[in-house]
């Protein structure tokens, strides 16, 4: 079994690991780490890579993920959805998957960040036709390799070759690899699963 961090609309490598393993669990006992995929997603906007961040309520240092709560004071949901529309309205499969994701941005259903992330993950796994149930760890577990730290926005993934696919704004800025799984789904549709399963995953610290 591999252990992964809870992530907001996680990047491609996250789902490639899931697609290539029989069993995985999400760690809800690890401490929250700022500026990571735990509360942010990266998409391809009209001006290049765009970071979408889920606002969180104030917390103490070294707070476990399971205790992190989402702040709905700001209308971040509307901002995120408008960003998705601007970025992917012209992609081949946006309209096909639009109604699977829109409801998450019209209701304030999930107080806990891990619950919000897991709800998105369940939808994504279903669309990818990966027969997994999102399971969580019962305690913090040491892992080697530890994908919780290897999957990070600042990682270069120089050892992983991401096959290019057509992105909406690729003629302006070129191909941008390992964005949110939404970039893959909206651009490749049903072919996304094969892409994930065939990706050769070699991580270097």
Helix amount:
25-40%
Instruction: Let me know the largest β-sheet.
Output: 2 strands, parallel
* Total of helices: 8
Q: What oligomeric assembly is this protein in?
A: single chain
In total, the number of strands is: 4
Task: Give the overall pLDDT as a whole number.
Answer: 94
Query: How far apart lie the N and C ends?
Result: 20 Å
Give the amount of beta strand, in percent.
Answer: 5-15%
User: Strands of the biggest beta sheet: in what spatial order?
Assistant: 1-2
Residue runs with pLDDT of under 50 for 5 or more positions = none
Structural class: alpha+beta
Shape: globular
Structural account:
- It is built from eight helices and four strands.
- The mean pLDDT is 94.
- It has one domain.
- The longest helix has 15 residues.
- The chain is 33% helix and 10% strand.
- The chain is an alpha+beta fold and 205 residues long.
- The radius of gyration is 16 Å and the shape is globular.
- The protein has a two-stranded parallel sheet. Strands 3-4 form a two-stranded antiparallel ribbon.
Outline:
With 205 residues, this protein is an alpha+beta fold.
List keywords for this structure.
4 strands; 33% helix; 205 residues; two-stranded parallel ribbon; two-stranded antiparallel ribbon; alpha+beta; 8 helices
Layout: helices, strands, pairs:
Elements: E1 2-5, H1 12-19, E2 24-27, E3 40-45, E4 48-53, H2 76-88, H3 94-101, H4 113-127, H5 147-150, H6 170-173, H7 181-188, H8 192-198
Parallel strand pairs: 1-2
Antiparallel strand pairs: 3-4
Helix pairs in contact: 1-8
């Amino acid at each position: 079994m591999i252990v992964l961090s809870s992530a907001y609309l996680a990047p491609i490598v996250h789902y490639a690991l899931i697609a290539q393993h029989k069993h995985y669990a999400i760690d809800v006992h690890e401490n929250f780490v700022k500026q990571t995929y735990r509360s942010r997603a990266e998409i391809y906007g009209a001006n290049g890579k765009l970071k979408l961040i889920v606002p969180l309520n104030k917390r103490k240092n070294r707070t476990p993920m399971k205790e992190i709560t989402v702040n709905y004071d700001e209308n971040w949901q509307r901002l995120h959805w408008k960003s998705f529309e601007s970025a992917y309205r012209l992609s081949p499969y946006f309209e096909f998957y639009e109604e699977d994701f829109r409801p998450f941005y019209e209701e304030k259903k999930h107080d806990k960040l891990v619950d919000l992330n897991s709800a998105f993950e369940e939808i994504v796994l279903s669309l990818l036709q990966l027969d997994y149930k999102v399971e969580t760890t019962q305690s913090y577990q040491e892992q080697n390799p530890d994908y919780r730290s290897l999957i990070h926005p600042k990682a270069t993934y120089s050892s992983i070759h991401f096959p290019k696919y057509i992105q909406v704004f690729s003629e302006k800025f070129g191909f941008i690899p390992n964005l949110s799984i939404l970039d893959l789904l909206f651009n490749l549709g049903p072919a996304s699963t094969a892409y994930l399963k065939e990706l050769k995953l070699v991580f270097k610290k």
